[in-house]
Amino acid sequence: MMKAVSFRWLYRLSVLLLLFLTLFIFFKLQHIWLPILFMLLKVLSPFIVAALITYLLHPTVEKLHKSGIQRPLALFIIYLLFFGGVGYGLYKGIPLFLVQVMEVGDQLPLFVETYKEWVSQVHYHTSSLPDGIHTKIEGAIDDTEKMLEGILNRIADGIRSAFSMFFLLILIPFIAFYMLKDFDKIKHFVFILTPAKWRDKGKSFLKDVDHSLGSYLRGQFLVCFIIGACATILLWIFHMPYPFFLGTIIGVTNIIPYFGPVIGAIPSAVIAFTISVKMVVIVVIIIFVLQFLEGNVLSPLIVGKSLHIHPLLIMLALLLGGEVGGVLGLILAVPLLAILKVTITYIRSPSPSD
């Protein structure tokens, strides 16, 4: 009996060591498979985005269809409203956004000089403090500079990537249209490809994922749009420069739970600091008002508590996502965590839910 137990533990240890060895070799060979992966992601990215749009719009199409509207007409209405609205927003918003980005670029030397003056003042006023405290303050400033530089570099890389993929992105509306049009056929095709013994469990699993993730994603996008629009209007009312540019950043980064509002507030605070202390106070108040509105009104009303995940787990996922994938990792961390939670729950309780 003891020999059997010892052999079982030896077998498990060998499998674990083999797994770690395989992962080690896999990551050592990343210079071979990483370029191929990036190429595949670039080619598949329009299909991934179109699939996400299809996933978000399909329930609305089905609701209209069940209310008595013929499915082709329901599809046309939702497609026209969504892509028409997005297209009109891009048509009006991109020129304004680019103009304000160029204005921010022109004012960048002023921002740098203001920042250098602020840092020198901090250095001067803290020079009389004990060496340990002074060194820690300087270290904190250096760490903040590196963090901001990393965030700006990732944002710039993301913008450059978006423009470089412009022609691929044009395909998204067409791909999304055919996915919405043939949604049932695609489901049937996937169902046929799935082995018979996994079909019932697979349907149950996807149903649980949709229940956990679908309402969160749809609600979160709507909340981000509202927060971005409110931020733009409030910044414009209080005569903050570049309101559309800064409001867009606040809205987009708001999709990242907990850390997003802080990341989105940094550009506004930095620009406000070059104007006056009063403007800094106004910007800080605006950010707090928006976060109060989101946390106490919009998110409970629109998103609700669909994920049922403890905040500590969400924070851990965000830290891991930011470390592995940067800004994109922060955005994808919570949806992937939701899928992982459903997967683990499903493995522990394999019986399909109703």
Characterize the structure shown.
The protein has a domain at 43-193. It has helices spanning 2-28, 30-66, 71-106, 108-126, 131-164, 166-170, 172-181, 183-193, 196-237, 243-253, 260-273, 277-303, 311-348. By secondary structure, it is an all-alpha fold. Helix 2 (30-66) crosses helix 7 (172-181), helix 9 runs antiparallel to helix 13 and helix 11 (260-273) packs antiparallel against helix 12 (277-303). Helices cover 88% and strands 0% of the residues. It is a multi-pass membrane protein. The chain crosses the membrane at residues 9-27, 33-57, 69-91, 162-180, 221-238, 270-293, 313-340. Its main location: membrane. Belongs to the autoinducer-2 exporter (AI-2E) (TC 2.A.86) family.
Summarize the structure.
The chain is mostly helical. The chain has 13 helices and no strands.
User: Separation of termini?
Assistant: 42 Å
Low-confidence spans: none
Q: Give me the number of helical elements.
A: 13
What is the N-to-C order of secondary-structure elements (H for helix, E for strand)? HHHHHHHHHHHHH
Q: What percent of residues are in strands?
A: under 5%
Give the number of DSSP strands: 0
Largest β-sheet summary: none
Work out the helicity level: over 70%
Mean pLDDT: 75
Radius of gyration: 25 Å
Please tell me what the overall shape is. globular
Class computed from helices, strands and strand pairing: mainly alpha
Transmembrane segments: 9-27, 33-57, 69-91, 162-180, 221-238, 270-293, 313-340
Family: Belongs to the autoinducer-2 exporter (AI-2E) (TC 2.A.86) family.
Pfam family, one: AI-2E_transport
Main location: membrane
